[in-house]
Amino acid sequence: METRILSGKKVSSSFYTSIKPRIDSLKSSDIIPGLAVLLVGDNAASAVYVRNKTKKFNELGLYSDTITFSDSVSQDEIISKIQELNLNQSFHGILVQLPLPDQINDDIIINSIDPKKDVDGFHPYNLGCLISGKSGFVPCTPKGIMRILDYYDIDLSNKHVVVVGRSNIVGRPISILTSMKKKFSNATTTLCHSGTKNISQYTQNADVVILALGSPEYLTDKDVKEGTVIIDVGINRIKDSTEKGFKLVGDADYESMIDHAGAITPVPGGVGPMTIAMLVENTVEAAEKSINSSL
How far is it, in rounded angstroms, from Cα 225 to Cα 190? Predict the structure, then answer.
C-alpha cells in the first residue's frame, strides 16, 4: 500500500493565498491585524516557536510584538501586562506562550485574557463555545488538523477516530471537533491517555489515529491496521550523530508506517505549519470582529 503524505506545508501555503483578500480588506479600512505574544523565560523550543510565528506575521504584513519576561517574573506582573493589552486596540490577539514557570498558574493567566482576543482558544469562554457548537476561537492545532483533513478530502463521517492525549491544547478539543455533526466530522471518537490500559487495543481498531502524547515514535505499524490515517501532532527531539546532535520525530514511528498507513502527517512539516496558519486566521478573525463590535 502506498502511503499518502499529508503535507501541512502544502495546506498552509494554500491557506495563506486564500486569506490574503481578507487581510487586504482590513488594510483598506486602515486595520492591520495585530498579535501580542508574551514569552516568559528562556525555553529554547518556545523561543523558536515564537520566532516562527513572528516571521510569518511579518511576511504577511501583519503586526506582531513579543513581550519578554524573565523566569522570576511574578504572576501579578504578567496579569498587569495582559490587562494593558486587553485595552490596546493595536492588538486584536493576545497569546501567552506555554509552558510557564512553576510559580505562575496557567489557568489564572489564560483567564485574564479578554475572550475576544484569546486567539489561542484556551479561555474557558471559547472552550465552552467549542463544546456547545457556538462561534468562538478554536484552538489552533486542532483547527489545523481539521483543515488538513478537509484539504485532503478525508471525511470522518462513520469512521472511528482514536485520539491519544487529553490536553486542553490538542486532545480534548480535537475529540470534540471530530465528533461534531458537521462536514468532515461526525466520527465516533475514542479518547485515550496515560491512564488508558492497553492503548493499542483501541488504535488497532481505528480508522484514524490522532497522536498528541509527546512520546517519541510511540506508535508503530503493529499498533494500527493497514490503511489507517495517522495525524501526528508530536514534536520530539532525540539525539543523533548529526552536526546538530538531534533530530525531530513525531509520536509515530514514521518509517514503519510507510506502505502500511493509508496516510500520515510528517514531522516536521505536518501539523506544525497549520498551527501557525490557524493562529494567523484567528488573529484576522479577531480584527474583523473588532470592526463589527465598534459599529
Answer: 16
Fold category of 29-116 in CATH? Rossmann fold (3.40.50)
Phi-psi region of 153 (alpha: psi -120 to 50; beta: other; left: phi over 0): left
The answer to whether the CB of 170 falls within 8 A of the CB of 212 is: yes
Closest CA to 130 of 89, 95, 174, 188: 174
Q: Does the active-site annotation cover 10?
A: no
Structure pTM? 0.95
Asked if the domains at 29-116 and 140-273 fall in one CATH topology, the answer is yes
Q: What pLDDT, in 10s, does the model give residues 129-146? A: 999 989 999 999 999 999
With b meaning 16 or more CB within 10 Å and e meaning fewer, what string describes 239-249? eeeeeeeeebb
Catalytic residue among 53, 56, 116, 143: 53
Compute the residue count for the chain.
295
Peptide bond into 99 cis (omega under 30): yes
CATH 3.40.50.720: does it fit domain 140-273? yes
Q: Considering just the CA atoms, what is the radius of gyration of the chain in Å?
A: 19
% of the chain with per-residue pLDDT over 70: 99
Catalytic residue among 118, 120, 207, 251: 120
Q: Which amino acid is at 145?
A: I
Residue 99 grid cell: 509552558
89 catalytic, yes or no? no
Domain ranges within the chain, ordered by starting residue: 29-116, 140-273
Q: Select which of 56, 97, 251, 253 is catalytic.
A: 97
The three state secondary structure string of 37-73 is: EEEECCCHHHHHHHHHHHHHHHHCCCEEEEEEECCCC
Question: What SS3 state is found at 221?
Answer: helix
**Residue 143 among the catalytic residues:** no
